[in-house]
Protein: Membrane dipeptidase
Organism: Candidatus Scatosoma pullistercoris
Amino acid sequence: MRYADLHCDALTAAAPGTSFLHRTTSQVSLEKLVGGDCLLQCFALFTPPAQDFARSEAVKTAGKRSAAGDGRARNSRSQPDPPGGAGIGAEKSGAGGPVEKISGKEKTGERGETGAPVWRRAQRCLSAFLAAEGELSAAGIRPVLTVENGGVLEGELSRLDALERAGVKLFGFTWNEENELGFPCGRPGGLKPFGKRVAEELLSRGIYPDVSHLSDEGFFEVAEIASAFRVPFAASHSLARSVCPHRRNLTDEQIKAVADGGGLIGVNFVREFIGKAGIFAHVVHLWKTGGEDVLAVGSDFDGTDRPLYAGADEMPRFFEDLARAGLPASVLEKLAFRNALRLLS
C-alpha cells in the first residue's frame, strides 16, 4: 500500500555537504522510501534552540584557544562538531546540506552571533531539500517541506518569505523548549504575541499550523485562530494521551479539535509515546475519538533512535499489522495516504 508521511527528520540528520537521501544509516533514504512504496514524504527543517548553538560555539572556541597554546594539541585533537551537532538531544542530530543563499540577505548584524548560525543551518537545510526534489520526484515520491521549531524565525517574521518560497506546508511553533513564539508541551503558558502573529500569517499564506510539541494552552489558541480563518491545522506526529499519558500526546479534547477543524493527526513510532498498549490502541482511539478523516502517518523517522518500525522500508509491515489487528480496509487507506493527500494536494 502506498503511504504519505507527515514527519521525518532525515533532512536534519544529514551532515553538511552530503545528500540526505543516500545515508546508509538513515531510517529514511531514497532506497527505503522506494522500498516502502512511499507516495509523499514530509521532510522537517529542524533547528535546535539558539542557546544550543551558543553552547556549541563556546565549546569550539575553548578548544581552539587550548590548541593555540599547545602545538601538539592542535595536531592531535579534533575540533568539536559544528553548530547543530551539539546540544540537540537524543532525538535530533547532525546538520543540513550544502550552503546556499535562499533568502537573499542574512540579518546577522541584528541578532549577533547567537542568531547567525540558526539561520545558516536553516539555509543549508533548505538548499539540501531543494537539491533533492528532482531525484525524489523522479522516483514517484512527492517531497514536502515542513518546519519543526518555529524558533528558526528568531523573532523575524520576514523569514517566512524564504520558507514559503521553498514550499513549506506545515509549520511547528515549538520544539522542547520555550522560544519567541510560545511554550512547549508540559509547560504552562501558551502562544506569545509573536506566536499569535505567526499563526495568523501562516494561515493567510496557506501554511498549516502544526501543534505537535506545543503546550496545551498554545494548542487551543492555535485551534481558535485557525477556526477564525476556517483553515485546518495538524499535529504532524502525535498520539493519544488517554492511551499513553505522555505530555507529547494529545488529549481527547485536542483530538476532537483537530478533527473538527478538518485537520490531521500523524501517528508516530516513538516507543516512549506509544507505551505498553501498543500502536493499534492509539490508531483505534484516534479513529473512535476524532473520526477516520483525522488519521494520518507521522513516523518521526530519524527523529528517534529506536522507532517501532525500523525505517521507511518497513511501512508495508505497519499496514499489514493494522489489517491483521482488524482495522477496516477503508480506514487503513485513509490513514495511509488519502487523508494526507486531501490536505497537502
User: Anything to note?
Assistant: The first helix runs from residue 10 to 13.
